[in-house]
Amino acid sequence: MEEYLKLLVASAITNNFVLTQFLGLCIFFGVSKNLNASIGMGMAVTSVMTLSSMLAWVVYTYILHPLGLQSLMLISFVLLIASFVQLLEMVIKKHAPALYNMWGIYLVLIATNCIVLAVPVTNAELHSDFLTSLVRAIGSGVGFSLALILMASLREKLQYADVPKSLQGLGISFILAGMLALSFFGFSGMITL
Amino acid sequence: MKNLWDIFYKGLFDQNPIFRLALSLCPALAVTSTVTNALAMGLSVMFVITANNVVVSIFRKVVNAKVRVPVYITSIATIVTVVILTLQAYFPDLYKELYLYLNLIVVFAIILARAEVFAAKNGVVPSFFDGLGMGAGFAGAMVFIAIIRELFGAGTLMGYQVMGASYDPALIMILPPGGFVLIGLMIASFNLIGEYQDKAKSAKQGSEA
Fold first, then answer.
1. Mean pLDDT in chain B?
2. Do A185 and B177 touch (CB under 8 A)?
């Protein structure tokens, strides 16, 4: 039990995907202009990441690995995730329109995104068992949401600041993310895997 | 011939994938802590984008518009797998360090974007040069960032000591936060250069009129 808890905290905070491994930056900088959108996006990414890495684990462990087809891993993961997200979108649209209105549009955006693909690839590389893979996916999703929501709150404050013209937009956002990463660095060494 | 050169050249500067289009920034930060890694990653991406442009361009009349994205993704994933297996066989050290990011080349926005915007509408030869130019722009930007980070962060270039023994490395440049701040400043300076160019251009037009 203890090691799962450790993995959860490690993948959410000390090995935060966005701030220490630079994954999902496109979404991170694209969506963090708005706090509400960030919360929706965080939820969407966390759920898609968890479900798709479970699916990918099953495909890898029961189909690709026994047949020795590891070289097809990438193709199958990408197609699997893209079609799964499409399916999820259709199901949610039909059965939970309220939920769809809230974060349906984000689903399309994350269908082929590096952060969603990174978790299954890491799991396959480390040959993790099912529970470990699940915990890693949830932890990474929570970490991504945390970074996104923090960043969005910071950027909302930025609207009142007088930023030099050439730094406006992406420039200042990157520097802000650097500061955020620096503060996350304080956690490093707390947990080592 | 001049046209082909223009197609190649625009990827290098005017539409540089990293500094101008701000696409595929994840690897620009993740693997640029050493020049060697950045160069390996840059060349891999250059190969993938060029090969994919050629494949997409050859099949552009056969592929139905409705299924084009899955087809492009399959093509990209195949080429990336080839690159990964090659690196695994001949450069096992690089492969170990870059493993995760090599896999993620599949979902780089820039590759899909070039297939969609350029290769799907143009012949094989222009598509080849477009991929080459975009790839070179990408690789060049990566190496440029890596040179700054490795030089100031470790005092070395490609592993060789350059800065002299008395240099005290600013470790922050190699660590993630330094990467973010550096890219922020670089984007700002590119904007600044662009502003001056625009100003000079409009001043010139003003004096001519």
1. 82
2. yes
Separation between Cα atoms, residue B35 and residue B157, nearest integer Å = 7
The reply to whether residue B104 touches residue A185, judged by beta carbons under 8 angstroms, is no
**Yes or no, beta carbons of B180 and A174 under 8 Å apart:** yes
* Domain residue limits at B6: 2-208
Q: List the domain boundaries for chain A.
A: 2-185
Closest CA to A93 of A82, A104, A85: A104
Quote the ipTM score.
Answer: 0.79
Task: Determine the Cα–Cα distance for residues B59 and B124; give it in Å rounded to an integer.
Answer: 10
The per-residue pLDDT for A128 is 84
What is the predicted pLDDT for the residue at A90?
84
- Report, as an integer, the average pLDDT of B78-85: 91
Tell me the DSSP string of B28-84: HHHSTTSHHHHHHHHHHHHHHHHHHHHHHHHTTTTS-GGGHHHHHHHHHHHHHHHHH
Position B97 pLDDT exceeds 90: no
CA distance A119 to chain B (A): 10
B162, pLDDT greater than 90: no
What's the pTM value of the predicted model, to 2 decimals? 0.82
| Closest CA relative to residue A36, chosen from A141, A135, A152, A129 | A152
> How far is it, in rounded angstroms, from Cα A80 to Cα A65?
16
- Report the DSSP beta bridge partners of residue B161: B156
Mind telling me how many Å the CA of A143 is from chain B's nearest CA? Answer: 16
The alpha-carbon gap from A118 to the nearest alpha carbon of chain B, in Å, equals 7
Residue ranges in chain A whose pLDDT is less than 70: 102-105, 108-109, 111-112, 192-193
